[in-house]
């Protein structure tokens, strides 16, 4: 059996309650998959900063690089006032490990009056450049201060993120065809940009993304190339979310779209994400450390369980991933063991056990 070594970075608050659930589901996967897991506990976050002076200890980075195939990151609390020496460990990890994509699937639980058709889409956000290169400056003028920021878009980063979006679209189509779920739904990647105004930066993103998606591997698989100006994209995403499949966007638009899309499905406790590079993936629930419910044992583990599956997908363990997704969907569809954020009474452990039972 193949052994995958997984770094566990619980972080702060409910991160410490949901990451153990992620470990449990990996340990509970059926032996027939021929997969084994070993784990290494790693530190990062606000508590770690207070203990050691570093939010992301070098040991965490070194261990991930040297020993691990993938990792799970819980959530971290940020200081409420700017604190010298503190910076976000997940942002640093994305840089240090060149995790150039942030992938966020958003899937509805049940039809609602506002959205009668199922929502099942993925936002693929470029994670290394755009306005987030953080090259800013402020200067004085006769009319007062002016601040500027660089928006950097490269052909290489735009191409590789769109290629990843295309690969995700193909994989989703294969899953639909094998599970019989929504067979016939058109595989599609929507390129998001504002090239009508930013003809050079977003123009380059659009052009490189198109070039990536026009490759034979995507054409032959029937992946449709769609595009949308970001502002009208927001409108349509909130009016007709069921029409989307995979959405690819530069960093800033992707950041905004992915948090917005998470709001379409109710609880933050349901929405997973993954930070992905070539050959490495970190699964990370999209919620924060939730200090208001910390220590009560009632955090919804589903965002983390889905993040585990998402990590496995990028480690090419699609069969294992599919089992977890299906078990989670089964728990939600039955609706008997739900955590309080979903209107239920179940604890983190009870939800986790119910999902494990369905594997
Ligand atoms: P949050 O996501 O922690 O919580 C928002 C609300 O959603 C809270 O009412 C919380 O109880 C609820 N919630 C979140 N996850 C849940 C779950 N799994 N189950 C049930 N309910 C859940 O956001 P916040 O309150 O704005 O931030 C709290 C702290 O987390 C802050 O310090 C913030 O900086 C940090 N944060 C970290 C991340 C991250 O690590 N990726 C993301 C967002 C916020
Ligand atoms: Mn964000």
Report on this model:
This protein has helices at 15-28, 46-52, 58-67, 89-96, 155-179, 201-213, 216-220, 230-239, 251-262, 302-314, 318-334, 348-357, and strands spanning 2-11, 35-41, 70-75, 101-107, 120-126, 136-141, 144-149, 188-193, 224-229, 246-249, 274-277, 280-283. The protein is an alpha/beta fold and 359 residues long. The chain folds into two domains: 1-100 and 272-359, Isopropylmalate Dehydrogenase, CATH 3.40.718; 110-265, Isopropylmalate Dehydrogenase (3-Layer(aba) Sandwich), CATH 3.40.718.10. The protein has a ten-stranded mixed sheet with strand order 2-1-3-12-11-4-5-10-8-9, with helices on both faces. The two termini are 19 Å apart. The structure holds nicotinamide-adenine-dinucleotide and manganese (II) ion.
